[in-house]
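Budget justification note: compute hours in this period were largely spent on complex prediction jobs such as the one shown. Inputs:
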Amino acid sequence: MAEEVKLFRTWSSPFALRVVWALKIKGIDYETIFEDLSNKSPSLLQYNPVYKKVPVLVHNGKPIAESLVILEYIDETWKQAPLLPEDPHERATARFWAKFGEDKVLSSIWSVFIKQGKEQEEAMVPALENLKFLEEELKGKKFFGGETIGFVDLALGWLGNLISLLEEIVGLKVVDGEKFPLLSAWMQDFADAPIIKDNWPPRDRMIVKFQALRDATIVAAAASK
Amino acid sequence: MAEEVKLFRTWSSPFALRVVWALKIKGIDYETIFEDLSNKSPSLLQYNPVYKKVPVLVHNGKPIAESLVILEYIDETWKQAPLLPEDPHERATARFWAKFGEDKVLSSIWSVFIKQGKEQEEAMVPALENLKFLEEELKGKKFFGGETIGFVDLALGWLGNLISLLEEIVGLKVVDGEKFPLLSAWMQDFADAPIIKDNWPPRDRMIVKFQALRDATIVAAAASK
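Corresponding output:
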């Protein structure tokens, strides 16, 4: 049967990027549908009625939503270039860190990004604590997945890239090379990997996008006080 | 090799219950270590340094934390009585609903529980919307897993039980049998399944516990206003 693989994404969604990278690593041909989130397509609403968000992967007519769920699906459907290790305990460890990135690292870094002054300083404390756990996890490894990019790298990868965007926008160093040598090296190695680099949106557009998002969040927070 | 399986839990943690049920369904012998969260054991802190929480499963000396990650581990390690279906798309669907329960249903129900008056009425709107999705998902099925209890049932199961506790404490019907006939039947069928019933903490103790938790949350919220 001819495979039909479609990916609903936006040009900038970091969550959708995880799926793009996974499909590229697996060497899967797919059709891209770029969504305008201010005017969502009927297909997107039909395929993801719960969240109405990208990414959605549609494989032979069947939709899957939620980026980490999609990564697991891709890994189970196309066995080449595995994203998760084989050993159950190593798989559990990978899922644990992917979830940690989602639940803790993301929100704590975002908090640093959208706060100012003393509040920003306070927000740095948990953010740095969370990054310290990742630094520990990288001991003896180039990637979280070992010698090659795996599940945790893809789950955290956009965050790695995002941190450097946010650092540029806010003018603040979060991942200091002296405090976080392994994480700094990982961010560089990940960003330099051809499959990642070739599928990352233009940095100047991302800066504009996230700068606007930050400004809007700060204005909204001030208005609600 | 003799297997060594230990579960760190508290008597009341609903997240730990997921793991208890999964181990019972699989027929795995294990040792239980009951933790006092006001005085955590050095072992718990060593095994789960990130969250310092229960449940933690330790299998042949190797720890796994986070209840849904533990369920996947259990299913991959002991193949009997599968919790997840075999088909990749069905597996993805199960993971999607388990995550939905975690991210959306839990917080929206909790919000109803700890609010009062008009705020509680407002909190009911998203809670009922989320439950409606679950109602739809149950069409044509006895359990989320089909004819037998599976991954999604365990992920949502404690929530099913919790809702009835909360209804009793607050004196409010959330899962109305007329609006949610399938979900009501599921809550009953799930609670009546021997493996679930035999491993559910005493209802009177749970009522006292959650009543105290609610009171403390309401006092804390009032103090921060």
